[in-house]
Amino acid sequence: MKFLDVHSHKQKSSYDTIVIKNEYPLTAQTDDLFSVGIHPWFLEDWHKQWETLVNVAKHPNCVAIGECGLDKNVSESLELQEIIFEKHIQLSETLKKPLIIHCVKAYSELIALKKKFQPHQIWILHGFNKNQSVAEMLLQKGICLSFGKELLTNEKLQNVFRTIPEGSYFFETDDSDINISEIYKKAQELKGEIKIFTEKLFL
């Protein structure tokens, strides 16, 4: 089985691992599979970033849009964040590429946008570490969840993961140095056979 690391800032693809490297528009490296987006933490020059992003996103190695999204812990207004996030949603639909999402304390707004746009492309919420009720709320709206290193040690999150249906979860290393195989191993301990539908999404 090939491993899929759906969101990483550090790792690289290898003989047994497909890594979707997170890139930022103005510094994007395009020699391997990657996603590209404007993170809600870094919106200062977003107009300039966006012009570049639209071109970079058309590269054949760009297999997803993001990370992008909403974060209520940052100083940028939620209104501006939503404007920029909506542009990512539209680009994801235009280019027919999945959307990788960063969301902090803005799940209601995220779901409202999902309802507004009715996207055909898959939405993947990266770094999911919340409780059962949040997981169910997102899954009911067709939003997939990506689990990272917290799955190794967080027992409450492990219990949540056990309930996630096949085809609705992914795994990631994000900005950690761990190997994605460690997360797969833990997931298999918790759930048994693990299936990630790589082909229909990214290849």
Specify Rg, calculated over alpha carbons.
16 Å
Classify the fold: give the CATH topology.
TIM Barrel
Question: What's the total number of strands?
Answer: 8
CATH superfamily: Metal-dependent hydrolases
Q: What structural category do the secondary elements indicate?
A: alpha/beta
Pfam families: TatD_DNase (PF01026)
Keywords: Hydrolase, Metal-binding
Binding site for a divalent metal cation 1: 67, 174
Protein name: Hydrolase TatD
If you had to describe this structure to a student in words, what would you say it looks like?
By secondary structure, the protein is of the alpha/beta class. It has one domain (3-202): TIM Barrel (Alpha-Beta Barrel). Helices cover 36% and strands 21% of the residues. It contains 7 helices and 8 strands; from the N terminus they run E-E-E-H-E-H-E-H-E-H-E-H-E-H-H. Strands 1-2-3-4-5-6-7-8 form an 8-stranded parallel β-sheet. The protein is globular, with a radius of gyration of 16 Å. Keywords: Hydrolase, Metal-binding. This is Hydrolase TatD. One of its GO terms (molecular function) is hydrolase activity, acting on ester bonds. It holds the Pfam family TatD_DNase.
